[in-house]
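Hi L.,

You mentioned the student needs an example of a multi-chain input paired with its predicted structure. This one should do, with 294 residues in total across all chains.
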Amino acid sequence: MNDENNRNEPCPIARSLAFAGDAWSLLILRDAHAGLTRFDQFRKSLGIAPTMLTRRLATLTEEGLLEKQRYSEHPPREEYLLTAAGRDFLPVLFMIGEWGRQYRGGGKLVRFFDAENGTEIRAVAVDEVTGAKIGTRPIRMVAPDES
Amino acid sequence: MNDENNRNEPCPIARSLAFAGDAWSLLILRDAHAGLTRFDQFRKSLGIAPTMLTRRLATLTEEGLLEKQRYSEHPPREEYLLTAAGRDFLPVLFMIGEWGRQYRGGGKLVRFFDAENGTEIRAVAVDEVTGAKIGTRPIRMVAPDES
DNA sequence: GGTGTTACTATCAAATTGAAACGAACGATA
DNA sequence: TATCGTTCGTTTCAATTTGATAGTAACACC
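Structure written out for the whole complex:
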């Protein structure tokens, strides 16, 4: 779907989708958050064709969500690490996961816990100002002025 | 990517991506939240080919995020309304938007305000239990037991 | 020398996408 | 009655994307 167009849309959602509107990329990011860094780790975890993986890793790197780091000179080997932008994508993944848990939750599911106090994490999106859950209060959308 | 497999993965993110790992679907949901309901409204808003739109609307309907409602018998006309599952997808869209605002925010952007008190909405994902922002505390992942 | 590991690239058939044109059912206008 | 416009699609088909499989390059280990 022409991603280049989305890049200049006034809608921040459309802009994000220019790279994130693709399941493989999101699953790679998920695995990166889970600690995977290397080509073959991703490949085995996802069962993705290597051509796809090469392309997706390249895109995510270009887009600034991952960065390549050399971890061996001989032979030359690189691993993919999350950048700040990549780490800040975690809330998106959690909200996607929360929706899946609620509406596609049959059978066994992976669960997430706060490592320090052991409580299960229940992600909710709130408005930082009012503290209200997103979706519980009416929203007004304002387009940027055309000037 | 084979979506049918994802559907039975233990990861709730993968499960959601079985239908949402696609930019068009997310943009349709965005527009549905903005109040659009009809085929041609979506088509014009998105510039999507009608073939694609037909398919995406059908998938979103099958998946239970939208529902078809007849609004005219003669001629037979239907509109697409958000279901509860579709409405509950809003937090995901907001978090995607928030990331885009932070990392792809150049130029003019649409903004969202609380319609009642006029403050701009800043969506953040927090853990409902601890109140901490997602990503600020260490997370432990627990796979379901294999039994 | 042989085997294994890692990180890819090459090839190519199959599936998906998207642009464009067409259609069916009506309602409104002249 | 004829024609135009609207809505919600379907048909067709070329171009792109995909994913499965195989191959490669550069080493390390024994």
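You could point out the following to them. Chain B has a mean pLDDT of 91. Chain B has seven helices and five strands.

Best wishes,
N.
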